[in-house]
Amino acid sequence: MNPNPQIVVLDAGGQYCHLIARKVRDLGVYAEVRASETPASELAAARGIIISGGPNSVYDAGSPTVDRAIFAQPHAVLGICYGQQLMAYLLGGQVRKGDKGEYGLATLELDDTCDPLFAGLAGRQQVWMSHRDTVYGLPEGFSAVGRTATCAIAAVAAPDRRLYAVQFHPEVVHTTRGKEILSNFIFRVCGCCKDWDPRQRIPLIEQEIRDCVGGRNVFFFVSGGVDSSVAFALCGRALGVDRVRGVYVDTGLMRAGETDFVGRLPGVSVESAQEQFLTALAGVTEPEQKRHIIGEEFVRVQERIIDGRRLVDEHWILGQGTIYPDTIESGGTRNAALIKTHHNRVAGIQRLIECGRIVEPLKSLYKDEVREVGRELGLPSELLDRHPFPGPGLAIRCLCSEFDAPVRETPEGWVVPVHSVGVQGDSRSYAPILALDRLDHASATELINRLTEVNRVVALVAAKSPLSRLQVLACSLTPDRLARLRAADATVRRLSHDSGFDRQVWQFPVILIPLGTPEHPDSVVLRPVDSVDGMTAQSVAMPAALLEQISQELLAQPGIAAVFYDLTHKPPATIEWE
User: Fold this and answer.
1) Which of 32, 102, 171, 578 is catalytic?
2) Which of 158, 264, 424, 444 is the most buried (most CB within 10 A)?
3) C-alpha pair distances (Å), 376 with each of 171, 371, 381, 541
4) 271 a catalytic residue
5) Is 169 a known active-site residue?
6) How far apart are CA 334 and CA 346, in angstroms?
7) What is the pLDDT of residues 336-357, one digit of tens each?
8) Of residues 75, 169, 174, 342, which has the active-site annotation?
9) Which of the four pLDDT bands, split at 50, 70 and 90, describes residue 412?
10) More confident site: 295 or 84
11) CB neighbours (10 Å) of residue 310?
């Protein structure tokens, strides 16, 4: 890698610091991520510095900061989200807690200004927000050049000092002109020249594999998903196929037909471990505990297979298809908040990482990059175009409850005490959901920004009983409930594929929640989303005729009380519910 990158991204603890660096590299300029507290003297060679977003408040004890001297050096500085707040705070401005948060899509009104960062971008445009604190008093020499309905200072500039900041996230795909903003910063403000070719990526990854593995061989648990398949192929290409083996573990948590599909992949054998996983998960309701158990059971399966097949430890290491969003949501950078622990980041796996017995070729890539690498490797589209499916399988799409609990009517809708994981202001949230009696994405966005007790809004599509009569029922992860979810998922996949809707979305989780009646104890939530890299996502509206067909077929299945539609973007909700 380039020891003197033109652009340095300072990690202020958010979910997006490596995504910013990746977007800069996509524009042909090498960028790398460094700790936010990196001394200014070590950044003097950079043409530009970007301060990332983060979950903290500038007033929190121990919150990430930067060396103030970076604002006095010749290079340009761009603050994003928390980076804007930090820049304003350190230079004498004022930051305060907002009256309400702003999560997801917003409309930016950008002034017609001669500032080079915003050249050619004046007017109204869609941006992506994830914040609650806001700047309300600017430092001397700064001017506000952009605003949204709930954020009066959404873009600021001090062009004479080459200092700029925005409250929104230009690095995510849902900020429609974000690429132009980053391009303006790199080329117009910083004066960078192109020095990076994305085609260098595969040779670099292959060399990293060889450096990590050395003379050992690699053993993969292959899920049949895009990530593990591409990682498996990369290791085979870097080391030779005779040094890489793959096993698919049937955990009993997979979709209908999945074991048959993966078992046909070349070089992959199938290991049945259904009883092991389901026994370990019996009676468990808490989502983080589920993830930890699944990760630890994978380690036990690995050890059993290694022993049974006489794969001597010092001659073998474990390969994983972990990608960057998995790492960052598991709190995998210094200041990042823990959103949810990925099964590839549980304690047993961490111990293997610390012992140098893990190789993860894709750990710095995003889902769309993984697909690009797969295409360069010549993998079939049948594999690369599959919707993402979580490693823990249906276990994290089958929600559980420790207690019976009623729904509660409010002026906005019904608060349902089924908790789901969210990401609000780059921090983890775990809160009930709000159910509406109508499909209204605009209302859902307004409500989620205003209400603090919920982190997800769903709409009731169809039900066997009125919502007021449904209740949350105590339950755990049982074979019957998994079979119910497996059948519902198969129905949704079949109808989505037949209609072509599955080609219009990035991912379509089907969730089972313990909301119903004693006769029909569960409900299904539909969660179609559009994304590029998985870091942000939009809830996608489904054609009415298809929604009606899916709902009717689901309600006809035993045990299903109602069908809901998840209207929430990411943020504030994660794509998966757990």
Assistant:
1) 171
2) 444
3) 25, 9, 11, 33
4) no
5) yes
6) 17
7) 554 444 445 555 566 766 777 8
8) 169
9) very high
10) 84
11) 6
Residues ≥6 apart with Cβ < 8 Å to 62: none
Question: Most distant CA pair in the chain: distance in Å?
Answer: 70
**Sheet of strand 217-221: strand arrangement:** 268-272, 244-250, 217-221, 316-319, 358-359
Strand-strand pairing, 123-137 and 94-110: antiparallel
Phi and psi at residue 30, to the nearest 5°: -70, 135
**Residue 97 CA: distances (Å) to CA of 135, 171, 280, 304, 489:** 9, 24, 43, 52, 41
Three-state SS for 46?
Answer: coil
What is the residue type of 263? G
Residues 6+ away with beta carbon under 8 Å from 41: 69
Per DSSP (E only), the strands in 251-284 are: 268-272
E-assigned strands of 240-297? 244-250, 268-272
The model carries a pTM of 0.70
Which residue has 């009930």 as its token pair?
432
Q: Residue type for 222, please?
A: V
Q: Which one, of 534, 550, 570, 561, lies nearest residue 225 by Cα?
A: 534
> Domains of the chain, with CATH numbers?
7-189 (3.40.50.880), 198-393 (3.40.50.620), 397-566 (3.30.300.10)
Token pair 């009104």: residue: 109
For residue 126 the two structure tokens come to 């869609």
Nearest C-alpha neighbor of 565 from the set 454, 433, 449, 400: 433
